[in-house]
Design brief:
single chain, 791 residues, alpha+beta, 3 domains, six-stranded mixed β-barrel, 22 strands, 50% helix, globular
Length: 791
Amino acid sequence: MFRNFFKTAVRNLSKNKFFTVLNVIGLALGMSLSLLYIALLFFLKTFDNFHTDKDHIYRVTSQVYDKQENPHYASSPAVLAQKLKDFVGIEKVVRINASLNANVVYGEKKIEMEGYFADPDFFQVFNFPFVKGNKATAITNPNTIVISEAEAKKIFGTKEPVGEILQIGAYGNFLVTGVFKDLPKNTHFEFEAIASYATITASQKTASASTDEEWESFRRSYVYFRVGKDSKISNIQSYLDQIAKDKYAKQDIKVSFKLQPLNKIVPGPQLYDQIGSNWDYLGLFLIGLMTLIVLIPACSNYINLSISQSLERMREIGVRKVMGGRKKQIIFQFIVESTTIVLVALLLSYVLSDIIRNNFLSQMVETSPIDLTPTWQTSVGFFMFALLIGVITGIVPALYFSKISAINALKGKELKTSGRSIFRKIVLTMQFMISLGFIMAVVIIMRQYQYSVNYNLGFEQKNLLDVKLQNIDPQLFKNEFSRLPSVTRISMSSHILGTGSASQRYIKTANQLDSIAVSSMSVDKDFISNMNLQLLAGRNFSNSKSMNSHMIIVNEEFVKMLNLKDAFAAIGKSIVLTDSSVYEIAGVLKDFHYSGLKEVIQPFFFEDDPNKFNYANLKLASGDLLGSLPAMEKLWKKIGGESKFTAQLFSDEIKDAYRFYMMIMKLWGFLGLLAITIACLGLLGTVSFTIKKRVKEISIRKVMGATSENLVLLLSKDFVKLMVIASAITIPLVYFLMDHILANTQHYSVQIGFFEIVVSVVIMMFFVLTTILSQTIKAANANPADNLRSE
């Protein structure tokens, strides 16, 4: 029986090739993103499944009740670990501190590295295989460290890494005691090195932190533990509840500790201060919603076109019923047809999803490492998904046709329902709304990007080249590169101005009970003139290093923070930081956007500390970077040794700071392209079938004297009305939504105006009218005699 249903389905589909092709292409486009989403879900289910004791490992999270945001942290106080060690049933407890982010110095190499401080049992609880060294004792002693294979190759090349010494930031020298395999993609951890937790505890021996302060220290501190097979988790939770009740009884905040199984971290709830990959349920829901925005219109197109072809199927349905065909057989016939189309579309959508995955998605979105390569499990998922879509898209037209009586079907009469016409209009209107919404979003984001990169940040950007010093002595660099004829001035800085990077410092207040956060950068005496910053009062740094070490140059907001009447009143004022260092204000600069446009300008100061210099800022005689590079690279080899010469134009770095707008634009543009294509395919099918039903009416009108222009207007006006309705609904919705998004993304953002709206509507009207006119003009210009010959 199924074989006969399949033969009939193939015969019907081949008889209506045009609509079959439209449906296959539309469904393939709609399903392509869904296949990637299915692959993502399967991949996320594999997270942390390689750990031997994965079912017995838990993380302690902290729900803080501060009467404001009440944040739920993935982290927890390190002091909690000692309490857990005393509980019967917990085998091993591991503290992790995620603050090992610093420059690693080895010989002439200076490499950025990110990692954790962890207890010795880290490699006993988690299954990260070692290549070299003893995992049981590798991070037992202070200032010992193990690194990944990739980092070992990057730092040491072919040299044996175990036993070598690395200098890491303010922590001093570390002994390399092991090398572990590079992390798999399906782990929620992200680290390149693990250093001994004893390094932190050794450096804190002189710390004066009280017990209360230790219990309020959540950030970047994580506690994991492994339980025995017979341990009751409910008992451990009760123990944690009692600890929280005792420790926070007299404090301003209240905290509750919660247990999170390892296999519930990714995917998992949305938590603050995640340690690595963060795939939360809300994010997955939003991604799934995006795929549905593309998939549902494609399915609606199929349903709409299937029902629209009802007249051509009436007699077939009538004959089936007269010959004894039952209702469920007719329903099954249409489901087989829809499933056949969907399975054909699945093959095309698989090809499309593979193209998107390999050539587009990796360049479009920056996320944690993911692997969407199809496996046999995902292939089964794809097939089951296609069957589900086939049943869903086939059931609606099947129920519609099964309700028609045999007599009406043989007479070719449709089932008279106003709902069918309304459904078609709703489908087209929704598709127009989705397409216009994506177009508006892309146009607005493009305008925001242009606004950001062209904004006057208050400093010079042209003909400036930033070079990474990579542990090169700043004075040596300046002496050598100053000889190049293409370089007119060189300054030094710890950060790149205007890109959102700056150090956070804290200033003591008069009552000594609180502190004020300010941003800072370390620069030399040539930086202010190099960046063309405007000095309102006071003076620049001098040639005397001893004098500069006690001087700072502040911005106008810093002066306002001190409640002084003007810039001149700030000169000579003493500032004390929370680390007890004392500075004197030597100058005041006109406000500039030191951290870019995301945040409002806050109090800021420059200091002159050569130990913090990471970049050399070269003022070039011209913008001919390509002509200057060969000489610079040659000179770099002389002073930089084996390290690679790394340089970038300052103006390009400013653009890179807003590159996320380009990624959003690409993502939404791609989704919009899919949505517009599906909408146009559905519109093309609807217009074609509408014209096919009205072909004799069109011919009679033409014989009676109607012009081609009149006929085009007659056939197009209903679709244009739907476009106008869609525009009237979409424009205010997208306007308010994007205005809210821009305001929350960036403090200094573009104002959405008439230009963005008009451009978006014009683009949408171009696609819609092109699709409509491609069919209506052809019908209006047809010879009426050809269509009336059979009358």
